[in-house]
Write a structure and sequence with these properties.
With 231 residues, the protein is mostly beta strands. It has 2 domains: 129 residues, no CATH class; 73 residues, Nuclear Transport Factor 2, Chain: A (Roll), CATH 3.10.450. It contains 2 helices and 13 strands, in the order αβββββββαββββββ. It has a 13-stranded mixed β-sheet, covered by helices on one side.
Length: 231
């Protein structure tokens, strides 16, 4: 199951618009889960994104391996939706917190794992929020620095792969992501800043289930288009 920051809002709008036959959500108890999780806070800081764009607002990600993921958006002033995306593979729910309505899809692919790519493209398979350091190690990224990153000092890792150039800034001596940028073959520049990157947190299984009282709506699966961006 792909949980994709680059297309979250557009996918949710399509999903929620196609829903019918509301019924009280009865979600199963969470299965046995890993004992730890990550918490990541990101902002889209791409140069071409307007300052007032919704994508620039912080988004909070919770991740536990490839089984459980959650992304919390701010309320979108244009759509009025306040969305949370929850995956407990192979199930994914799109929840509107204001209306307490949720759409549901089931991963029918062979993978049946949760993914959160930084960019939705086969050209950067494996580069996800939560796996950035492993991706750079696997691709033998070059290192240099330190360089300035905001008010702090960062090491810089960079790699070119399938026509994409990926640059990851990590806090000096900590291997904690501070910013990631991607240059695409089409010349587009995409960048995300990390306001928080916490690992080894105690697992909270309730984060990966719908809250009590949610109305569950029947829906059809939707497949996001490749290369779409705009958190």
């Amino acid at each position: 199951m792909q949980l994709l920051p680059s297309v979250f809002t557009s996918t949710a709008l399509t999903l929620l618009a196609s829903l019918a036959s509301a019924a009280l959500a009865q979600t199963p108890a969470p299965p046995a889960s890993p004992s730890s999780m990550m918490r990541i806070v990101i902002r889209d800081v791409s140069a071409g994104l307007p300052a007032e764009h919704f994508g620039r607002l912080p988004k909070v990600i919770y991740r536990s391996g490839s089984c459980c993921m959650r992304l919390e958006e701010q309320k979108n002033p244009e759509t009025g939706l306040h969305l949370v995306f929850i995956t407990r593979a192979p199930d994914t729910w799109v929840l509107d917190l204001d209306q307490m309505l949720a759409g549901h899809t089931v991963d029918e692919t062979a993978d049946k794992a949760a993914h959160m790519p930084v960019l939705w493209t086969d050209g950067l398979s494996g580069l996800e929020f939560g796996t950035e350091l492993a991706f750079m190690r696997e691709k033998s990224a070059t290192r240099d620095g330190p360089v300035a990153c905001g008010s702090q000092r960062c090491d810089r890792q960079s790699v070119e792969h399938n026509g994409y150039k990926v640059v990851l800034l990590t806090l000096v001596g900590r291997d904690q992501p501070a910013q990631i940028s991607i240059g695409t073959p089409a010349g587009e520049q995409i960048a995300f800043a990390y306001d928080a990157y916490e690992t080894g947190l105690p697992m909270k299984a309730e984060l990966f289930s719908l809250p009590p009282g949610t109305q569950l709506l029947k829906s059809r699966p939707e497949t996001p288009p490749e290369g779409n961006t705009g958190l």
